[in-house]
Amino acid sequence: MAPRAEALPEVGPAPPPPYPAGRPRFSPGDAVKVSFRDGPGHIRTPWYIRGRTGRVERVCGAFPNPEELAARRDGLPALPLYRVRFALAALWGAGAAQDTLDVELYEHWLEPADAA
Fold first, then answer.
1. What is the model's pTM?
2. What is the Cα–Cα distance from 57 to 103, expressed in whole angstroms?
3. What is the DSSP letter of 68?
4. Separation of alpha carbons 50 and 102, rounded Å
């Protein structure tokens, strides 16, 4: 079965700074793909969005990595956290065009959508 093309939802204007102290790799409006991988330990990225494409809705700030915190490490350096918007129809094949799901994801789970 051929992969289904994913419609990317629109995002509004970027919220005002402050953004994380370090430069985030992505900006509001950027199309990003969620890494499709698994690993040991406490993973905070939902399975149903791995390998899917969405749009950065906002940069939330920089926070300690919760996957590292769950392993009783310090979680540093802090990583940029993004709110990424997905079209429900692209995720589950159903839903109105305006139906979306926002998920907050750390930068190490994201890659540019045009990366193969």
1. 0.78
2. 10
3. H
4. 14
